[in-house]
Structures are given as structure tokens and as C-alpha cells.
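Q: I'm building a small set of examples for a reading group on sequence design. Run inverse folding on the following structure and report the sequence directly after it, with nothing in between.
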């Protein structure tokens, strides 16, 4: 109890995460585990750390620490870049639909994990192996991520009626204190609030099939080109057994729809889709803690792909992408203030965002080596490979690629207050 009290006190002063350099990374990597292998104690610790971040409001902030992470994800989906020498200045999604999807979320999930560890050092972000048929039942239990929503019937023309709605029991119901900020829980198509309850419509058509076929994931991992691998893992394209590209896919995007639900009208000549729950409304999807399990698995698969002969900067585009997605582009919000979120959400999003240091600059190059960020997976080796063409130095607040000796001496603290 004493440690938790001190952790909360530290968090409340806006010093949520101490971000260390190279001296800590090789000797003691934290290990992210499959959710099906978590003990009851590990589940409880993970949930308790999340809920501590949800109830801890840093001095000078209008938001809890958890909700600041929600605001950052929301802001990342439409930023205005101000550097006059760069192209693609306006309405850039710095976190999705281009090459930066994987490095942006690697940095983002690691910072969240560090925040959790400031509450409980034993906690890591577990992953949801989408090919494991038992995982869905482990995840959606009252003692872990909670159950499906209830109380709302979705009638899908041509398909039938399906139930979902607010999550009313378990760790992430309003009754247990998981109350969403209505200004950060929105339907982006209407810019209307989705309310204060976590909404789930689990396995509503067309996202009914589970598990994802292992053959589908194996085909993604077998790709040699990052420019094919990334959209396949993100879930925009897939491949048939002959290696031909087909639209849609079973991966990251599909899991968002599987949990949050997507309304589909099959009576039209071309089916129309509308996300209905928290996870399927991507900007606000961080409000559902299942988000972290999904993205830990995304990062795990990228890590495995990298370990399978795709390490270093040779396997990431150095140019030709929108700003923020090229190898050496700073990624908002870790870009030294060169970009600002456009209007998205309700109220004044800018006033809700955490403050980042002007020298807190992170590029995709900085996060290519996940081990040098201090973690590994139970499916990957703990050893740090020999450096390739890019030293993927710790992308947690460092100023680009610097010398190893300089980096060893550097310790950054992420200020997540608004003061």
C-alpha cells in the first residue's frame, strides 16, 4: 500500500514515467505475455494499474492520466504540420493508414506501459493472439476486461438482430468507476458523443468469425516488403493462398470491429458500414482497455517480422510518405511542437492534451529496435541483435539518433501534466 500511495503521489505531480536510456535495456527486458497465460494476480495487477491511471488527475490537468492517452490518440488522427519546408501540411493522420502506423503505436504503447509500471513495476501490456481460439473467452470475463455490452438490439437488414450496448458489469462498467469522458468518446462520422459508458457489440456481423485463421497471419509474416506488410497487418489488404492481394483483411482493423461492432446494410447494391461501439470508432477506441491487448499483438507481430530478417532501417521507407511517416520524420506529439491537432472531438481538445517537452522528439528510426526500448515478448528472443544500418535507440523522449555514449547518460522524464 505504501508503494501504491507513493506512486499515485508521483503521478499526481505529473511525473508519470521515467524514461531511461541504454543502460537499462539489455540486462533486464520486461516480457509481454499472451493473455491466456496470465495468472489471476497478473490480471488483477494489470486492471488495477489501468484503473489507477484512470482516476489519477495530474496537477494542472483537466483529464486523468488515462484520458490523456485517449486525447493523444484522438489528436493524432488529424494534425496540422507547421514546418514550411515540408509538404502534406494539413490533416495528417500521424498514427494510421501509412507507414508510421507501426512505429507510432510502438512508442505509444510503450509509454502507456511505462505509466502502468509507475503504479506497479510488475505490469506489462499483454497481447491478444488473434489466432488463439481460447483468448476471446479469457479476455471478456468480469474479472479481466469485462463482458459484452447489453441492452441494445442492432437490427441488420438481411442478417438479423444482435445484442450489445453499454458494459454494465465487471471491471470496466460505469458501476465499477469506468466512466468515459463524453468529449473524448465520439462517433467521428457525426462528431456526436457516444456517452460515458464503454460500448461493446461483440461479434456483430460482418465481424463474426473468430479466431483469425493462422494461415492468414502466416501469409502476412511471410511478406518481405514493409509497404505490403504494414497495410496487411493494419487490416486494409489481405492475400489469398496464391499470394494475390484482395481488399479487406483479418488483422488489427478486424479486431476493432469484432469488439466494437459494425453495422452493415446488406440490402444495398454495395454494402455500407458504420461503426457502433467504442473499439470500432477508432479515434476514441483507447477508451476500451482491450485496445492495448490488440496493439500489443500488432507490435509483437511486427517484432517477429523484424526478427525474421527485416531488422533496421533498410526495411522502413525513408521517403515518399506523408510527413510523420518517413524514417527520420518526427512523429506528433513527439515532434518538438512542429504540429498541432486539428479540430476533432467535442470541446477544446488542445486544452486537454498533455504537455510534451520541446526536445521530446521521436522518429520511426528511434523505435525500430524494440529490445532497446526495454521489452520483449514471450515469443521472441530476449537477446539484443547486432546493430544494423540504424541504431534503433530508445524512442522514448530522445532527440533522434545520438551517440551511444551520450544516450547512456541521458534520462528523460515524460511530463504528462498540463502545467
Amino acid at each position: 500500500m505504501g508503494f501504491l500511495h507513493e506512486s499515485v503521489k508521483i503521478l499526481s505531480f505529473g511525473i508519470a514515467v521515467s524514461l531511461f536510456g541504454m543502460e537499462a535495456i539489455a540486462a533486464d527486458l520486461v516480457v509481454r505475455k499472451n493473455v491466456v497465460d496470465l495468472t489471476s494476480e497478473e490480471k488483477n495487477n494489470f486492471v488495477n494499474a489501468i484503473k489507477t491511471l484512470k482516476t489519477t488527475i495530474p496537477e494542472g490537468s483537466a483529464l486523468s492520466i488515462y484520458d490523456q492517452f485517449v486525447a493523444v490518440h484522438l489528436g493524432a488522427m488529424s494534425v496540422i504540420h507547421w514546418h514550411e519546408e515540408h509538404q502534406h501540411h494539413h490533416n495528417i493522420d500521424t498514427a494510421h493508414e501509412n507507414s508510421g502506423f507501426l512505429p507510432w503505436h510502438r512508442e505509444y504503447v510503450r509509454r502507456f506501459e511505462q505509466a502502468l509500471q509507475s503504479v506497479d513495476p510488475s505490469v506489462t501490456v499483454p497481447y491478444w493472439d488473434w489466432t488463439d481460439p481460447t483468448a476471446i473467452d479469457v479476455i471478456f470475463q468480469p474479472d479481466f476486461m469485462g463482458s459484452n455490452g447489453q441492452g441494445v438490439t442492432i437490427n441488420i437488414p438481411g442478417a438479423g438482430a444482435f445484442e450489445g450496448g453499454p458494459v454494465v458489469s465487471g471491471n470496466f462498467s460505469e458501476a465499477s468507476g469506468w466512466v468515459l469522458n463524453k468529449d473524448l468518446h465520439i462517433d467521428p462520422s457525426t462528431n456526436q458523443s457516444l456517452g460515458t459508458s464503454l460500448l461493446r457489440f461483440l461479434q456483430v456481423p460482418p465481424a463474426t468469425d473468430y479466431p483469425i485463421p493462422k494461415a492468414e497471419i502466416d501469409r502476412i509474416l511471410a511478406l518481405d516488403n514493409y509497404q505490403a506488410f504494414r497495410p496487411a497487418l493494419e487490416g486494409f489488404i489481405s492475400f489469398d493462398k496464391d499470394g494475390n492481394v484482395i481488399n479487406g483483411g483479418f488483422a488489427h482493423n478486424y479486431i476493432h470491429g469484432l469488439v466494437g461492432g459494425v453495422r452493415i446494410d446488406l440490402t444495398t447494391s454495395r454494402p455500407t458500414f458504420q461503426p457502433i461501439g467504442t473499439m470500432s470508432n477508432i479515434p476514441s477506441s483507447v477508451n476500451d482497455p482491450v485496445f492495448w491487448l490488440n496493439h500489443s499483438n500488432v507490435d509483437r507481430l511486427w517484432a517477429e517480422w523484424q526478427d525474421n530478417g527485416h531488422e533496421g532501417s533498410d526495411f522502413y521507407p525513408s521517403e515518399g510518405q506523408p510527413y510523420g511517416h518517413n524514417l527520420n520524420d518526427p512523429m506528433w506529439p513527439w515532434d518538438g511542437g512542429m504540429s498541432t491537432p486539428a479540430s476533432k472531438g467535442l470541446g477544446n481538445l488542445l486544452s486537454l492534451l498533455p504537455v510534451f517537452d520541446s526536445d521530446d522528439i521521436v522518429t520511426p528510426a528511434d523505435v525500430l529496435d524494440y529490445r532497446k526500448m526495454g521489452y520483449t515478448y514471450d515469443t521472441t528472443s530476449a537477446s539484443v541483435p547486432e546493430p544494423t544500418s540504424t541504431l534503433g535507440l530508445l524512442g522514448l523522449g530522445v532527440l533522434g539518433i545520438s551517440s551511444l555514449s551520450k544516450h547512456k547518460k541521458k534520462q528523460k522524464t515524460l511530463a504528462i501534466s498540463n502545467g
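Residues 101-119 form the longest helix (19 residues).
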